[in-house]
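User: Could you check the structure of this?
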Amino acid sequence: METPQQMALNAMLQDKYFPLTEDTLFVRAQQRYSLFTMFHAMQGDEWMNAQGWGTKTNECEWEGVTCTMMETDGTSLGSMRRRRERRLHPHEEEKVMEMMVTRIQLSESNLQGSIPNEIAGFLHLQELEVSKNDLTGRLPSGLYNLTNLQKLYLDDNTLRGSISEDFGNMNALEDVFLFGNELGGPLPKSMGNLKKLRRFWASDMFLSGTLPTEIGGLESLKGLYLQNNQLVSNLPSTMGNLVELRDLRMFGNVITGDIPASFRYLVNLEVVYMDSCELRGGLTNDVIRKWRKLSKCVFVLLLWIDVCF
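Assistant: Sure, the predicted structure tokens are below.
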């Protein structure tokens, strides 16, 4: 049986719309190959929204695919072949303008199977939305090479495994929705590198371990949703650095210890849900007075219940 990669390559070799020649741009061939591989790896024949996919037409016209004219590497297939033959080190050619895939939207489209590693071929991808499908398997290592990705929506699938430390390489990320999968293991320490991250929604899964102190590096974070996991941790004092934080939800974990005094710096908090945790105290009037924007707040401490209104 042919693999998705073999099926994609065969489609490319027989593609009269996009013939592979010496002058073909490598980046354009790579993104087309990656789309063909996605189609075959994720059971494209069963998709609900698949107009154009897998056909010999312009990939920028396939349903759910958005392309943008971008400045990109001008290396051709012929140039790459000659370098290999002469064993020359690869280098970028002069920049050219080309239509590159910047957005893939295939939510609720009956996607099945696993996300292929070839997703790394979308060098200019800014948004990947494949929520509410039946995707399985692990997060591919190629995903972490998408350093231009801003929005990642993988929620409500059946993805397993853990989040790699390479997650921190994706430093353009703004929104990450992972909830409703079967991902487990610890939160990667490297996530502290994501200075542009605004919303991290990873609830209702099997995340375990402690909250990394590096979480305090998320200087743009507005929403942190980690409820209903298997975390066993205290609240790192570095969370006081999350001065943009507006919504914090941690219930359904084993969160212990005191509420750090540094929480008084979270002056933009509007919603806090920490009920069903095992916090001992630290929710002082000094802290609460700083939370002037708070509208919804529930803490369950070992000694009492605090409803902050």
